[in-house]
Specification:
Blueprint: H1 3-20, H2 24-43, E1 49-53, E2 60-69, E3 80-82, H3 83-89, E4 98-102, H4 106-115, H5 117-137, E5 143-151, E6 157-161, E7 164-168, E8 184-193, E9 200-204, H6 208-218, H7 220-223, E10 228-235, E11 239-245, H8 253-258, H9 263-271, E12 276-281, H10 286-293, E13 301-304, E14 310-314, H11 319-323, H12 328-337, E15 341-345
Parallel strand pairs: 2-3, 11-12, 14-15
Antiparallel strand pairs: 1-2, 2-4, 5-6, 5-8, 6-7, 8-9, 10-11, 13-14
Helix pairs in contact: 2-4, 2-5, 6-9, 10-12
């Protein structure tokens, strides 16, 4: 390369490092490897050479390294150089010296740059993919925010985060959200996986992890460990239940989560566009936990069956509350507690009549 081209080349790599986060040094090393492979392909695999790019000027140089020997020990021209030839290069050379000298190969430099172009591009892409993977991997399991750049005909939302465009698919969208191009959006980073191409990055507005993290952000007692989130159940855009617990018996756990005048829980609800949230006090015994989780319904009794089902008895007036609209409350309770919930109606007479509620755990 000409001096001007070399300088422009280094400047381009510097910009690439700033904009894409691709290490300039890693790219230069990749180019050197590509040049070396091209040289050996042209001049022989046994050539003991190295290709070096000057980090200041961008000039490409090829060096051979050979050991100085007497004629009787000369067996490998790729690894050895005769003493008399070595003295031409370096007058004070002596037997046993390791001589490193530049190879005059201007034609190679011109051809190698063209031949190695695709290899270099591939190395740059690999370095960029690795950088993107590492950058997002460290944010896995957290909330990240970006700008909605476009929405396609399949309802995929393209969100630009840290200069990278990620896709929020319809399966991970909350039906209460309204997505508008140009608006800022918070999403939960579920997972980051390496692939043969671009890293697979899954983001969500539907994940229970989003709700959990919003609680940690808005409620200092949770982030500090004074209050623990035991479990979360959510039907995104509609309703959610969060089970919380504190070892401090004097702490108003629910009050801390709600905040003064409901400010803390309001911030969470606003972020989720009106999603209703029930805060449940976690109980150690399954019967008490199920009873608390069924709020706002008043439960008469809970009995654990041998198969792990929680049989719940409620009055007729509480049945609709316990089940919820389209069985939602019962479904959320089952997911929150990790148990099958079987709700029955008990009449307060000498002989109780029961009515089994079907399909509430589907």
């Amino acid at each position: 390369m000409k001096a001007k081209d070399s300088k422009n080349f280094l400047e381009a790599l510097t910009e690439l490092e700033k904009e894409k986060g691709v290490s300039k040094e890693s790219v230069l090393e990749a180019i050197e490897m590509a040049m070396l492979a091209a040289y050996k392909k042209n001049y022989g695999e046994d050539e003991n050479v190295e290709v070096i790019i000057d980090r200041e000027s961008g000039d490409i140089k090829v060096f051979e390294t050979k050991t100085v020997v007497e004629s009787e020990d000369f067996v490998d021209p790729n690894m050895q150089i005769l003493l008399e030839d070595a003295k031409i290069i370096k007058k004070k050379s002596k037997v046993g010296d390791v001589l490193k000298f530049e190879v005059d190969c201007e034609n190679f430099r011109r051809n190698a740059i063209q031949n190695g172009k695709q290899i270099v591009i591939q190395k740059v892409r690999e370095a960029e993919r690795e950088y993107i993977y590492e950058r997002f991997k460290e944010k896995e399991g957290n909330i990240i925010s970006g700008i909605i750049r476009r929405i396609d005909t399949k309802r995929n939302i393209f969100v630009e985060i840290d200069g990278i465009e990620l896709i929020l698919p319809p399966t991970e969208q909350s039906h209460s959200d309204i997505y508008r191009v140009g608006e800022r959006l918070k999403v939960y980073l579920i997972s980051v996986e390496k692939t043969s191409k671009f890293p697979k990055i899954l983001i969500s507005r539907k994940s229970e992890g989003l709700l959990r993290k919003l609680f940690e952000i808005e409620i200092p007692e949770i982030s500090s460990g004074l209050i623990e989130i035991k479990s979360v159940a959510r039907e995104a855009g509609s309703r959610a239940k969060v089970a919380v617990h504190s070892k401090d018996v004097n702490m108003d756990t629910v009050g801390a989560c709600i905040g003064q005048k409901g400010a803390r829980i309001k911030n969470i609800i606003d972020e989720l566009n009106g999603e209703k949230i029930d805060i449940v006090i976690w109980k150690e015994t399954p019967e008490e936990f199920v009873s608390a989780a069924l709020s706002p319904a008043i439960v008469e009794s809970v009995e654990m069956q041998e198969d792990g089902t929680a049989r719940v008895m409620v009055e007729q007036s509480q049945l609709s509350l316990a089940i919820g609209k389209n069985g939602q409350n019962a479904r959320l309770v089952a997911r929150l507690t990790g148990m099958r919930v079987d709700i029955k109606v008990v009449e307060k007479t000498q002989k109780c009549e029961t009515e089994e509620v079907e399909n509430i755990n589907e």
